[in-house]
Write a structure and sequence with these properties.
The complex is a heterodimer of chains A (262) and B (388). By secondary structure, chain A is of the alpha/beta class. Chain A has helices at residues 21-27, 31-39, 69-81, 90-94, 106-113, 146-157, 169-176, 181-185, 201-204, 221-230, 235-242, 250-261; strands at 10-15, 41-44, 57-63, 82-88, 137-139. In chain A, strand 3, helix 3 and strand 4 form a beta-alpha-beta unit. Chain B is built from 13 helices and 15 strands. Chain B has helices at residues 16-28, 88-91, 127-140, 148-155, 173-176, 208-214, 224-239, 250-255, 262-269, 275-279, 325-344, 354-357, 365-387; strands at 12-15, 31-39, 42-47, 58-63, 66-71, 95-104, 107-110, 119-125, 157-162, 188-195, 198-205, 286-292, 298-305, 315-316, 319-320. In chain B, the strands form four sheets. In chain B, strands 1-11-10-9-8-2-3 form a seven-stranded mixed β-sheet, sandwiched between helices. In chain B, strands 7-6-13-12 form a four-stranded antiparallel β-sheet, with no helix packed on it. Chain B is globular, with a radius of gyration of 23 Å. The chains are: A alpha/beta (262), B alpha+beta (388). At the A-B interface, helix 2, helix 6, helix 7, helix 8 and helix 10 of A face strand 5, helix 9, helix 10 and strand 12 of B.
């Protein structure tokens, strides 16, 4: 049934430690955003408007990772206000690029970066939302793909399962007609262990995948590392390739630590 | 000069200009002409305007997990083996809208669209590629259920095969009996001949359709030497395959050893990325997605290539049946080489070697089969010795 005849479900967008890029993907939906606004009441969306309609909310889109004690509390309040909680982007889903600090002593950074370190209150680790509260759906990507966001909202509105595949980037890459950069040029590529969703954009421009979407459903990272080593990748490069946007995802974290401790 | 009478299943001599004329004739007859061309340091299949678009003087060098182009020391038009993609996408597109519906006042209607296909001529179809099309025919149009899109495009297809006079490092079509020479299934077959006598092509029509084109080409009668050279070259290709697959008792080997530890060994290396299935010219699995507009009024049903290497592929109520990489690789290989035989009365493999070359970690289906065979034989011998 078309849902816009009934009371429109309320949607809220929440920001934690992040660059706002994923929220902007929602604004970037353009025409689709108008259609979304037709069916959903956008009740709280600071990137678009300061006006806020009080909760509870049917859908909460959560961007960003938890990096402060204050945020660790705030996410629980949001969970209580939300019927469905969807994380959007790599920060909210795995901890983001800022989770690189997890591998070092955060106080050292603070002392180097800030003139008055005393003003800074930051947790040692940047953690994903799912470390703190129950998450109903995780939408991957850095940033998320706007079409995927529309698809998730759409699936919610039409009471169906979102068509968001969890297999590797290679499947999209081949369907798109890209030539495998690893096989044809020897360029290291994380595509075989990376969650689909970007339509294999980097290989389409002759670059290896950086895994903006994080690990795929059942990644065999050990085997891929072995292949990288065979093609001459050094220990330092191996650590670095997994310490990107999704460095704190369980699989990449374990692999980079494994190579660091070798 | 005696005028040549052109007949079916008879070989004639064509030169480069005749091959170019064939392309022109096909275009005049409103065929979209698709064949090999160099793109992005590989030889792919795309639309051709003239023979100058062909990979002239270029060949491909294959290893497990590696593909590179190399210059030849001649100007061969078809002097390569197989590139990253087969012709599969033309008959079985990676993404196809198969149904559109609209809901007005709660009533759903199916939108009929006039989506007639182009007449399509495929050039440079290597015998393994041709065999793959003949296998997919069994799947899509010769069974109980007909795939409409496939059938319509297949009915509007003209196949120009080029026999292989050189085998690649990852080729094993002799093992799968799908090459290096095409025996049937083509409209026109070409064998490229380059020697001291010049650069010519043996050409023959396999169908009436092919014959109508051949009749319009400038051709001459081949000499005994031409025929002999072609036979020799094809024989040499057949004897110089880079890989070999033992097909004798293959079905029994695989199906009798489903719990062999070798599957675990493969699973340690397999990325489960699905590349082998995407590049395989016979893999035919697909997924159906229903896409709705936000209002739910406009809906599409879309078919996309799927792979038995994804978890969702074997998802049924309650979970994924093939949850381990081991079970997924085993499913793919045992289907391709064993149960396919029961299902379609043929191997699912044509010996093109793409799954070997385009596997990012270079897993080799022929090596894995051989390794399993050797281990099973050794174990049987050990057992026999112990019993004595």
């Amino acid at each position: 049934m078309p849902l816009n005849t009934a009371r429109k479900p309320k949607l809220a967008v929440w920001k934690f430690a992040s660059c706002d890029g994923c929220q902007l993907s929602l604004l970037d939906c353009e025409d689709a955003l108008l259609a979304i606004a037709d069916s959903i009441q956008i009740a709280s969306f600071p990137e678009a408007t300061r006006a806020v309609i009080r909760g509870p909310y049917e859908i909460s889109l959560v961007e960003g990772s938890i990096t402060s004690a204050h945020d660790a509390e705030r996410i629980h309040k949001i969970r209580r206000l939300s019927k469905t909680l969807i994380t959007i982007g790599a920060c909210a889903t795995s901890g983001g690029i800022q989770a690189l600090k997890n591998f070092k002593d955060v106080n050292e950074f603070i002392n180097i970066v800030y003139a008055n370190p005393d003003y800074i209150s930051s947790l040692q680790n940047s953690t994903p939302i799912s470390d703190h509260v129950k998450v109903d759906f995780e939408l991957r990507g850095c940033p998320i793909n706007k079409n995927a966001l529309v698809e998730v909202c759409n699936a919610y509105l039409n009471r169906r399962k979102p068509n968001i595949p969890t297999y590797s980037v290679c499947m999209e890459c081949k369907r798109r007609g890209n030539i495998c950069v690893m096989v044809s040029k020897g360029i290291p590529c994380l595509g075989p262990v990376t969650h689909a969703g970007c339509d294999a954009i980097c290989p389409a421009y002759n670059r290896g995948c950086y895994s903006c979407f994080g690990p795929s459903e059942d990644p065999n990272i050990k085997s891929l590392s072995g292949q990288f080593e065979k093609t001459g990748m050094s220990k330092e490069e191996l650590i670095r390739i997994y310490r990107g946007i999704n460095a704190n995802s369980e699989e990449f974290k374990n692999e980079s630590i494994f190579h660091e401790q070798k | 000069m005696k005028k040549l009478t052109i007949a079916k299943n008879t070989k004639y001599i064509a030169d480069k200009c005749s091959i170019d004329s064939l392309l022109t004739l096909l275009k005049e007859q409103k065929f979209k002409t698709v064949g090999p061309t160099v793109r992005d340091e590989t030889i792919i299949y795309d639309e051709l305007d003239s023979i100058s678009d062909l990979p002239i003087g270029i060949t491909d060098v294959h290893e497990a997990g590696s593909y590179r182009l190399k210059e030849r020391n001649d100007k061969a038009l078809f002097g390569y083996n197989v590139g990253p993609f087969s012709f599969k996408k033309y008959l079985f597109p990676p993404r196809l809208t198969i149904l559109k519906t609209k809901r007005v006042d709660g009533k759903i209607t199916i939108i009929k669209e006039n989506d007639s296909v182009d007449k399509l001529a495929l050039l440079g179809v290597k015998p393994c590629e041709l065999q793959a099309i003949l296998i997919q025919d069994k799947i899509f149009i010769e069974g109980e259920y007909i795939d409409n899109y496939y059938k319509e495009q297949r009915d509007n297809l003209l196949i120009v095969t080029t026999n292989c006079t050189e085998a690649g490092n990852s080729c094993f079509c002799t093992s799968t009996q799908s090459g290096p020479e095409a025996k049937s299934g083509f409209d026109i077959a070409i064998t490229e001949l380059i020697d001291d006598n010049g650069h010519n092509f043996l050409i023959e029509a396999g169908t009436k359709n092919g014959l109508t084109f051949l009749k319009k080409l400038p051709l001459s009668e081949p000499s005994d030497n031409d025929i002999e050279t072609a036979v020799k070259k094809i024989k040499s290709a057949s004897e110089n395959m880079g890989r070999k697959l033992e097909t004798k008792n293959l079905k029994e080997l695989l199906l009798d050893n489903l719990n062999h530890p070798h599957w675990e060994d493969i699973a340690k290396r397999c990325l489960s990325c699905g590349n082998c299935t995407m590049v395989c010219p016979t893999c035919f699995c697909s997924n159906i997605e229903d896409v709705t507009s936000l209002t739910g009024e406009d809906n599409e049903r879309i078919r996309t290539w799927d792979s038995c290497f994804s978890m969702e592929y074997s998802y049924i109520h309650g979970g994924t049946v093939r949850a381990s990489i081991k079970s997924r690789y085993r499913q793919w290989m045992t289907h391709k080489l064993a149960s396919w035989q029961e299902q379609f009365n043929t191997l699912g493999c044509v010996g093109c070697g793409r799954c070997i070359v385009w596997c990012p970690v270079g897993i080799d289906i022929t090596e894995e089969t051989k390794s399993l065979q050797e281990q099973v034989t050794a174990q049987a011998e050990q057992l026999a010795q112990a019993e004595n």
